[in-house]
Amino acid sequence: MEWIIRLGTPNSYGPPALRLGFEDGPDGAERILVIDIHCHPLWGVDDGAKTFEDSVAMCKMAAADGITHLVATPHCNYRYTYDPDVNRTKLAELQTAVGDSLRLLLGCDFHLSYDNIRQLIDQPRSFSINQTDYVLVEFGEQFIPEQFDRVFYDLQCAGLNPILTHPERNPVFQTRPELLYHWVTKGCLVQVTAKSYTGGFGRRPLRFAERWLDQNLIHFFASDAHDTRYRPPVLSECYQKVAEAKGPEVADLLLKQNPEAVVQGKQLPPGLPPLERSQVKRKKGWFSFLGF
User: What is the DSSP letter of 27?
Assistant: First the structure.
């Protein structure tokens, strides 16, 4: 069985041809087709893939898992310098190696610091996903939450749509989880790591991912993959868990439709309204006394 939707025309920088839905894999089993907007497959540019062979292996694993489009998002922070020209060259070389099994796009895992923010506002298309208005932004562990209202406003004025990455793994959000609701209601988008939701990063990230999903505060699940062993480019397990918990429509929205809109630079489709914690029926459990 094969159900494929093709949109757009493939080229270097414009909207890619998307294949969404379900198709039979090489072993005859049905595969769910999804899009990954946060991954680190480019070798030698950050703490992701170390060699070209590692990069190819990550792409093959992603394709085998049903990922049709993968956004390579090298870090831009105090430790790693983001060079758009180098990254485009590596992306093209990697695309040639993997062929038609996977479509590769370029983005950036952008660390929010004063110098970085000025650079982003001056050169937004150098860092955004597939040269659209969407950009992944990451907070450090010591950022001052009260300053983000101004940062978010500046990014919006520059025409950018910030996507906050993996807040469930950030100590500040774990201490003050109500901050996420505040910023989502102001228009900020949220990406949670798939492995957090499936339990691979431990109990705390899992509980916050589940909590924020109940509050409709998550817009994307992505792999944030760095290798094929410990942090692999796999989304199928997350898709299945979301579908079981919230229904296939929500799973499609968070792993297909919303990522599709981002890579094509379109407005996200309508989703469920964000809920305050008090509006969500609380689940009783062993760890309820911890505030989960």
Answer: T
Q: Which amino acid is at 144?
A: I
Q: Which CATH number applies to 2-268: 3.40.50.1100, 3.40.50.1110, 3.20.20.140, 3.20.20.150?
A: 3.20.20.140
3-state per-residue secondary structure call for 271-284: CCCCCCHHHCCCCC
- Give burial (CB, 10 Å; 0-12/13-18/19+) of 157: exposed
Q: What CA–CA distance (Å, rounded) separates 200 from 127?
A: 28
**Dist CA 266 CA 91 (whole Å):** 23
pLDDT, one tens digit per residue, over 176-235 is 888 899 989 999 999 999 999 999 999 999 999 999 999 999 999 999 999 999 999 999
> Is the full-model pTM beyond 0.90?
no
pLDDT digits 0-9 by tens, 53-67: 999 999 999 999 999
